[in-house]
User: Fold this.
Amino acid sequence: DSGVTQTPKHLITATGQRVTLRCSPRSGDLSVYWYQQSLDQGLQFLIQYYNGEERAKGNILERFSAQQFPDLHSELNLSSLELGDSALYFCASSVGQLTDTQYFGPGTRLTVL
Amino acid sequence: AQTVTQSQPEMSVQEAETVTLSCTYDTSENNYYLFWYKQPPSRQMILVIRQEAYKQQNATENRFSVNFQKAAKSFSLKISDSQLGDTAMYFCAFMKHSNYQLIWGAGTKLIIKP
Assistant:
């Protein structure tokens, strides 16, 4: 158990809908990262937050947004969902904002029908 | 742009054997970090080992060790005395010093046979 929690574990929804994925980092970690793992594109970095501020952006679609709250938990919002958004979404956390080791949560499996 | 290549889509060995997974990367950076993560059937992503590029000494963690060849841009993972619980996807990942995102290889599926 890495100490990073993600909810829900599974999510099934329809195209066009909006969902919110939640992540709680390890105790003491200030950075949160979001990754998408899909069959066709593998693992991709989406976005990073450090202590409430966005610090790095990767291949995140405009339909997706994220935020980190004062209690350091983070939410990834996915809207206007498409079939291709079906994937495993991981949250990871690290102590700081430098190249600390990232510890991953169990992931949320999103299925868009 | 950085890229990470894992040339072995799948490998299988007998329990207790030693296996080496290959990873090469392409970068013009001098300061960076390399990682091996394991993803068992549970889908949890678990850190196996980490290597700082400025360190010449190869990292080791119990039965796991790496062969880091900076000039050749190679970062292989050796698993000694393999166990059934080592069955998983193994991902090699790169992170440059000034950036926080992990760049991932496509993964190698490792099967340990009893």
